[in-house]
Amino acid sequence: MSVAADPMADDGPGITCVGLGPGDPDLMSVRADRLVRGATDIAYFRKAGRPGKARQIVEGLLAPGVREYAMEYPVTTELPLTDPAYHSQLAAFYADWTERLADLAASRRVIVLCEGDPFFYGSFMHLYVRLQGRVPMQVVPGITGMSGCWTATGTPMAWGDNVVTVLMGTLPEAELVRHAAAGDALVVMKLGRNLPKLRRVLAAIGRLEEAWLVQDGTMPGQTVRRLAEVPEATVPYFSILLVHGRERVPAATAIAAP
Ligand SMILES: C[S@@+](CC[C@H](N)C(=O)[O-])C[C@H]1O[C@@H](n2cnc3c(N)ncnc32)[C@H](O)[C@@H]1O
Hints:
The protein is of the alpha/beta class. It folds into two domains: 14-143, Tetrapyrrole methylase, N-terminal domain (Cobalt-precorrin-4 Transmethylase, domain 1), CATH 3.40.1010.10; 146-243, Tetrapyrrole methylase, C-terminal domain (Methyltransferase, Cobalt-precorrin-4 Transmethylase, Domain 2, 2-Layer Sandwich), CATH 3.30.950. Helix content is 28%, strand content 21%. A five-stranded parallel beta sheet has the order 3-2-4-1-5, with helices on both faces. A five-stranded mixed beta sheet has the order 6-7-10-8-9, sandwiched between helices. Helix 3 (84-105) crosses helix 4. The longest helix is centred in the middle third of the chain and has 22 residues, at 84-105. The model is unreliable at 1-5 (pLDDT under 50). The structure holds S-adenosylmethionine (SAM). S-adenosylmethionine binds at residues 22-23, 115-117, 120-122, 144-146, 148-149, 189-191, 214, 216-219, 237-240.
């Protein structure tokens, strides 16, 4: 499937969503850096009243006079995911920004900032599917948050034929147990108030002692702790749980001790 005629054609009118990596601006790609520094118009998501993580990452890199469009979520954790109002408010928000970005992108290049990789649980995907076919669009991949976080633990994440399972802490407990039990290495995102539930899940699969919690990975104030040493029941949005895969040494190739 062809998505963009020329994925490098990012200088005419249109939209380029730039993956900024996990937080440290040094972990942006050369292309992301070039596009951010050259931007005349940037758009980014943020929770109302907050600066926005993507916007914080590019602080000090922007050209003077850049026009900024803060796309403020109407709702984040105020309503449960199961509430229809949560989905209707977000749908209206995405529909609104689809129109606004389409208007802007008719005459200029809008750079949409995205923490991590845009196509990996990124909010921009909701605009991307709505804008496809209407506006020339490019997406610049970025290092994911989880990659920055497992590197921060200083421990290899996935070996050989390990299965890596990525889960959202918002899933029901039984589903978390089922998926987590089936893999070798485990990543859990969107922790927030779900930490007590996730401790129970890890205990149920016998891996509670192996789990790490990384908060603000590669960002100022990063913390890397064993989950067993974390007293809090609630953690900030940019927190991730990691259980590393284990190296498997087949008996036939194991080096015999002298
Ligand atoms: C909506 S997802 C966005 C993922 C992003 N597009 C990426 O490629 O990593 C947000 C979740 O990713 C995790 N996350 C992303 N970056 C992180 C970081 N630097 N430190 C800790 N957690 C992070 C957190 O669990 C957070 O709740």
